[in-house]
Design a protein that fits this description.
Blueprint: E1 2-4, E2 21-22, H1 26-41, H2 48-67, H3 76-85, H4 96-110, H5 117-128, H6 131-142, H7 151-170, E3 192-198, E4 206-211, E5 217-219, E6 234-238, E7 246-251, E8 256-262, H8 271-277, H9 279-285, E9 291-292
Parallel strand pairs: 3-8, 8-9
Antiparallel strand pairs: 1-6, 2-5, 3-4, 4-5, 6-7, 7-8
Length: 302
């Protein structure tokens, strides 16, 4: 384990003005993620079965994104009202009907894949669930909540929600989005999985958060907590060395930590897949006073 008593030196200095957000290409996002999970499965023997399972889910997500009818863009008036009020233009509550349909279609796509028996039972239970139970699952997901005693069915439903939300985000006018507040997706209001330091979105060394729900990337300044917005008491921890490409960004103001991935050092990093594969960092951070602040339905329960 290594710990930085002061801000990461690579983060010092400003960056040029960069785009606020990058909206997802849903099919491409999930296919890229599946490929990364498959690659990581070949390098992390202890996690390999789970990583391959998630790769199969991501391929099903890509197929679902390809076959679901594209959503209609929101009305221009609604976008302008959201912009003026500094609110996200997507209303998660309005995703319920599309989510119910997507859950059924994704369940059918997942039926043939190999999975552990408990996961198979959870998938069957979700397919057979009555309206009240489904509403409970959907309400939890739409508020970024997964109960610890019901992780497996929520994982499958979350995979469906990611597709629905990504499709909805993909038709937004990118140039009309505005910052909401630190750590909040400007498209759907979701929480970040983690943040990425990248060289591929308009400026060298820019930092983008990745929405756990709609897959939108949005710019956040560096050396700032992506949970509370504080710039005080930010430190970095890693399992390996100071040059690690995945670190925990820790905030003493709110007591939370969120992963930061250095895609500028390793362009193949994928935020969701590498969040799961860096489970060792989560296990290390459990022994500290900080609480995990990133949200990843595929990592809940570990």
């Amino acid at each position: 384990m290594s710990a930085s008593p002061k801000p990461d030196p690579s983060m010092i200095g400003g960056v040029a003005k960069v785009p606020l957000a990058r909206l997802p290409d849903p099919e491409a996002v999930f296919l890229t993620r599946a490929e990364r999970f498959d690659f990581l499965a070949g390098h992390y023997a202890n996690l390999a079965p789970y990583l391959r399972f998630l790769a199969a889910i991501c391929r099903a997500q890509a197929e679902l994104a390809r076959t679901l009818p594209p959503p209609a863009p929101p009305a221009a008036e609604r976008v302008e009202l959201a912009r003026a009020a500094h609110m996200p233009p997507l209303d998660r509550r309005e995703m319920r009907a599309a989510l119910a349909q997507a859950m059924d279609r994704l369940s059918a796509l997942l039926e043939p894949i190999e999975m552990p028996q408990p996961a198979r039972a959870a998938l069957s239970a979700l397919r057979a669930a009555g309206p009240a139970d489904r509403d409970w699952v959907m309400a939890n997901l739409l508020s970024d909540t997964i109960p610890e005693d019901s992780v497996a069915p929520h994982l499958f439903a979350a995979a469906a929600l990611q597709v629905v939300a990504a499709l909805a985000a993909s038709v937004l006018p990118e140039d009309k989005l505005v910052p909401i507040r630190t750590g909040t997706c400007p498209a759907c209001g979701g929480r970040p999985v983690a943040s990425l330091v990248t060289e591929s979105i308009g400026a060298e060394g820019a930092r983008y958060c990745s929405c756990a729900t709609c897959q939108t990337l949005w710019n956040e300044v560096r050396v700032k907590c992506t949970r509370c917005g504080s710039t005080k008491g930010i430190t970095y921890r890693s399992v390996e060395t100071e040059e690690a490409t995945v670190k925990a960004e820790c905030c003493r103001e709110c007591g939370q930590w969120v992963k930061i991935l250095y895609q500028n050092k390793n362009p193949t990093l994928e935020v969701v897949a590498d969040d799961v594969a860096s489970l060792g960092l989560d296990l290390m951070m459990r022994e500290t006073e900080w609480k995990r602040g990133g949200f990843n339905p595929f990592l809940t329960g570990y």
